[in-house]
Amino acid sequence: MKSLPANNPDWLIKKIIKKGGTISFYDYMNFVLNDPNNGYYGSGKAILGSKGDFVTSSSMSDDFAFLLSKQIDEWLIQIKSKLICNDNLSILEFGSGDGSLISGIIQYFLNCNKEKLKNVCFIIIEPNIGMIKKQKKKLEKYLKLGINIMWRSIEELENKSLNGVILANEVLDALPVERIINLKGKTYRQAVSVDKESGRLFFEKIKISKELEEGISFAQEKLNINIPPKDAPEGWTTEWHIDNKNWLKTVYEKINNGILLVIDYAKEAKRYYSISHSKGTLISYKNQQIIEDVFESPGNCDLTSHICIETLIYDSETIGFETLGIVKQGEALLLLGLAERLFKIQNEIKNDISKALSKREALLRLVDPICLGDFKWFVFSRFKKKKIKINSSCII
Ligand SMILES: C[S@@+](CC[C@H](N)C(=O)[O-])C[C@H]1O[C@@H](n2cnc3c(N)ncnc32)[C@H](O)[C@@H]1O
Given the DSSP bridges, would you call strands 307-308 and 266-267 parallel, antiparallel or unpaired? Predict the structure, then answer.
């Protein structure tokens, strides 16, 4: 094989060739994100935060974890009292990134409600070893304090064993997706091929799979959405989150009494699958820049795709979750006291003006409607006794 262009690494080319030279887009996304040695998350190359490749709410501002913790505390109090639940409570986070959110939540309880930490355990479900190392480093000081933090695989948790709050902030958008493409009036599954001579990656089309066909029929029958939409232009492409339903089902099975909070980029189905969104929602990030070409530097960039609001709700409810509410992040954080945090920062200006200004900027970005403020908070619940009423300050 000739030497390859810098952005097409040998490890990936070899993997694709080993699989016959063509793989589904789903497999491509899975490799470049989760390969244990070379994937963006798998190897731990992912750098989150304002000095990294992209920001998540928790990696950008401590105030996010603070405000969310107020909501978590409110939920835990209700779970404990309304259920007269004597079991220990858990705060479980899927896909903890660099550990910022759990770290911020623990800090909140240390500062505001230390007693609670005696009866709460923290569980992280993180499949990528590279990210686990980062999380352990970040949380080392809390482990040394004796705070109960454990890393588990989902399979290690017993069914109906969780009482508490389950969090997934920007995790579903990192799960590999299938891509669907419309070519000459026919619908195909998008694939990725490699040119064996040059090592160049290119898109290929393959026959639509049975699972994808089912997804497309589901969208039509249950959501009244055509994929592709009527009069879709040549090359119209979209994503299908093929793993979400199984993920929700597995989480549901593990909960005894609890609230699941999913926070993510999300679009309504009629916009997601519209003619105007002809390239889908897939985005690649590196150094705080959006990279148009998803073949750019595979394994060194984030790849992410928006969630479809109605599909997530439909799947959750058919599995058995109750939807307590869906709210924009900007509104949720305002309801949880963001304005008071802003006011507090004003008072800090006289001590350290540049620190106070950057804190204020981060706080405003969390609610900015064209930025993180447009993220959706999906609040679902599962309780043994169905009629339990739960108050959520983050929901209007
Ligand atoms: C964008 S980061 C989310 C960061 C974090 N939640 C935060 O608030 O900053 C995506 C995380 O999900 C993890 N991840 C990927 N696939 C996952 C899966 N199937 N289950 C749980 N976590 C997963 C990644 O390794 C990474 O830690």
Answer: parallel
